[in-house]
Every structure is written in structure tokens, then in C-alpha cells.
Amino acid sequence: MSGQSSIIIEAKNVDFLYSGEWETVTPAVSGISFTVRQGEYVALVGPNGSGKTTLLKLFNALLIPSAGEVLVKGISTVNEGMLPEIRRSCGMIFQNPDNQLVATTVEEDIAFGLENLALPSEEIKKRVLEAAATLGLEKLLKHPPHLLSGGEKQRVAIAGVLVMEPDCILMDEPTAMLDPAGRHAVLEAVQQLHRERGIAVVHVTHFPEEAAGADRVAVLSEGRLVVDGSPEDVMTGLPLLHDLGLRGTTAVELASMLRQDGYPLPPKILHDRELVDSLCSLEQNS
Ligand SMILES: Nc1ncnc2c1ncn2[C@@H]1O[C@H](COP(=O)(O)OP(=O)(O)OP(=O)(O)O)[C@@H](O)[C@H]1O
Ligand SMILES: [Mg+2]
Known about the structure:
Elements: E1 7-16, E2 29-37, E3 41-45, H1 52-59, E4 67-72, E5 75-76, H2 83-89, E6 90-93, H3 106-111, H4 121-134, H5 150-162, E7 168-172, H6 180-197, E8 200-204, H7 208-212, E9 216-221, E10 224-229, H8 231-234, H9 238-243, H10 250-260, H11 272-285
Parallel strand pairs: 3-8, 3-9, 6-7, 7-8
Antiparallel strand pairs: 1-2, 1-4, 4-5, 9-10
The chain binds adenosine-5'-triphosphate (ATP) and magnesium ion.
Magnesium ion (MG) binds next to helix 1.
């Protein structure tokens, strides 16, 4: 993304400490400065407890920084009067689709956030039908959401965010509970929205292959941002990833083993295709 694109989310030196009964001694996130620009697809990775969910909730004003500031399109999240606009601009998709579906039919569920925007009912209907078509949900509009598959439920949740015409979609391990076909359908839908409508995405994931497909990968460890760079740089940096208990993509891990066994593979192999092509060209040149 060019440096000229407008900034959607800006975290400035943000700390967050959970307080109350479960008060933690160390902050859940600490000293985070981070920017998400219009149209960017950012993957957020890190071990369990490293602060990923906390950071997403700070971006969406579900949590307010203990120190520092989060700005969404220039508006600080401490600004309570602007919460509806902040949440419209940055919609959130959670790991468990059951926790975010609220209505009795898919149609009502997709329209739920729109009801508070005081739009004419024709406009609501139009947006719901468009979002349902985009996410392949037309045939399910009259169904009760709790009877859908996990992947279908996640697509309903995404449609509910899409009708709000967001600038950014924040996703917290949206494919963690899905089978490979459900994962593929959800990711394909989000990538399409990103490509065709320029919606920015912040995607928390434990799947290296998902992170490898982003424009940028940010790594959290113990509440701190330890690296923020291209997937080619971050996801091939095995010593750091392994230190944190994370892994590279299958291609990165295999390429590393093959290099140790003496195969002169080029650096920064990230995707399966690149590994296969590199091995074939070694074979042809031998
Ligand atoms: N509601 C809470 N009250 C107190 N502490 C919390 C709360 N939620 C999270 N924490 C703590 O904050 C830290 C960061 O948690 P967070 O859920 O943001 O991590 P995460 O990176 O999303 O982990 P995971 O990969 O397991 O989802 C952890 O130490 C966690 O124990
Ligand atoms: Mg989490």
C-alpha cells in the first residue's frame, strides 16, 4: 500500500491493563504503536495470551486504552459520542460465530446493526440483499441462524458487518472453528471484499498460511509488537517465530530443512508453489 493512503486506525503508544477481580500484574498490551491504512490487509499473529484479541478490541472501542490513544479515522476511541461511528467504520468478527448471531432469521441478523442507523426500510432491504448475494447467503435469508453450519454463520456475521459499509473489518481467528471448506469460503469472501471494495482487514490468525497471504504481518509477544513487516520477511524469519512457539508456512519450514540438507534453494520461499518451482528448477539444472 502506498504511504499516501488514508489512515483508518492509528494506535499511539497504547497500554492496556485489565482491572478488577482478574487484575493482571503486567499489561495485556504495552507500548503499541500501529497503523492500518485504507485498503490494507494486515495479519496479526502471536502466541496465546500475547494480546491480539485485546488489541482488536482496542481498535473497535470495546476497550479503551489505559495509556496512549487509539484513533479511528482521526477520532479518539475515548470519544463516547462517536462510538456508533467507530463501530460502523471498524466492524468486528469473533472466533465463535454463535456468540455474534442475535436475531431469529438470517435476514434480521444481517440487518441488526442497520436498525440503529435510522435508514429508510427500502435502503435496509437493499443493503441486506446485496450483502447476502456477495456472501452467497441468498437461499438462507429466512433460516434461523442457529441451524446454519459454522462457516455459514461466519458469513452471516461478515454480511452483518458489510451492510454497515465499513472501512475496516477486524477478525479474531474467524476460521478457527471451521473445517477446510468453511475456512476457504470465509477467507475467500473476505479477500473478495478487500480486493474489490478496498476494505481494510486486520486478521488475527494462528494459521501461518493465512498470515502469508496478507500485505503485512505484525507479531505480538507478551503484549508488545515485536515485528511488523512484509509476509516475505516476517514469515520466513524462523528463528524469531520458533522462539515464540510459532511456525512459518509449510513451504518455509520445508525449505529450511532442505537447505540444511544442502539444497541450494533461494531465500524467502513463502508459498507452496514457490517451493515446488524452486525444486523443479534445481532438478532440471542438475
Ligand atoms: N477479561 C480479562 N481479564 C483479565 N485478563 C485478561 C482478560 N482477557 C485477557 N486477559 C489477559 O490479557 C492477556 C492478553 O490476552 P488476549 O486475549 O488479548 O491474548 P490473545 O493473544 O488473543 O490470546 P489467544 O491466542 O489465546 O486468543 C493475557 O495475559 C490474558 O490472560
Ligand atoms: Mg485471542
